[in-house]
């Protein structure tokens, strides 16, 4: 007999499930602690000072202001809670955790690796790592959308955390690539820094809208992605209105992009619910 279309079958927990729960929990705690230490949260060199300051708030026109990085405290907390929840009794054989838990751990490991690479001064290496992180978060998004929730708590925790993580990393990827190009002295590529900055922040908002369209069936992850991206884009706008790298063009474009990123996912979710 086969299961009806759109449903999942669950077998009892296996030894591999128990190992997954333990490894993901311990690995998550280690990865988050390593990332926090490596980023300078407990002393040492802050990320904005690494790689010759290439990722500081004044390095490029698409660099978010320093306060934007406070979102990491929320993301780290969400990742730890996610790892704890997947290790709770009764979750070992959960089909959704079976499909996503290892990817959650991979995302944390890649974040810690990104920090190590940046601290080593390898900017183009950091671009490769953050691109891999973006892919991993994309896989998580697809799986959360495709697989039904088995528990509301688990779904909300995992989806909210992944959404915030993905939204922030979308903005961080733009800043990371731009920082690497700037450090490589590639020039303004014909358009000039202001025009390119405006194009990039608006492209970031467009990516978030595309994510929201794909994830509209999972309002938590769709809205969380938009809020985190909107946060990052808003701080780009703030950073371009003060400090040594003022740019009215980018500030205006980033403000518009932040509004689009934060509000369009909410609107899509509301419209989707009204159609049901």
UniProtKB/TrEMBL annotation:
It comes from Isoptericola jiangsuensis. This is TspO/MBR related protein. It comes from the Bacteria. Keywords: Membrane, Transmembrane, Transmembrane helix. The chain crosses the membrane at residues 22-42, 69-88, 100-117, 123-142, 163-187, 193-213, 220-238, 250-272.
């Amino acid at each position: 007999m086969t299961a009806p279309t759109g449903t999942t079958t669950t077998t009892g927990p296996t030894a591999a499930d128990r190992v997954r729960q333990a490894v993901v929990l311990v690995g998550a705690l280690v990865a988050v602690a390593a990332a926090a230490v490596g980023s300078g949260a407990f002393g040492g060199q802050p990320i904005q000072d690494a790689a010759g300051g290439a990722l500081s708030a004044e390095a490029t026109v698409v660099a978010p202001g320093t306060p934007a990085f406070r979102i990491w405290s929320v993301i780290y907390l969400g990742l730890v809670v996610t790892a704890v929840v997947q290790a709770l009794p009764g979750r070992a054989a959960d089909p959704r955790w079976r499909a996503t838990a290892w990817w959650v751990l991979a995302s944390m490991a890649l974040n810690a690796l990104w920090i190590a690479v940046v601290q080593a001064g390898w900017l183009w290496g950091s671009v490769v790592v953050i691109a891999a992180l973006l892919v991993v978060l994309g896989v998580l998004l697809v799986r959360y959308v495709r697989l039904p929730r088995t528990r509301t708590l688990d779904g909300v925790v995992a989806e909210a955390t992944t959404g915030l993580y993905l939204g922030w990393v979308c903005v961080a990827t733009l800043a990371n690539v731009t920082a690497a190009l700037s450090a490589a002295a590639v020039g303004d590529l014909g358009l000039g820094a202001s025009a390119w900055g405006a194009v990039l922040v608006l492209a970031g908002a467009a990516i978030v809208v595309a994510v929201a369209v794909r994830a509209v069936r999972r309002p938590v992850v769709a809205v969380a992605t938009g809020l985190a991206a909107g946060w990052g884009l808003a701080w780009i706008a703030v950073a371009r209105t003060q400090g040594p790298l003022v740019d009215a063009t980018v500030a205006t474009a980033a403000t518009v992009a932040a509004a689009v990123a934060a509000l369009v996912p909410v609107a899509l979710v509301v419209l989707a619910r009204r159609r049901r």
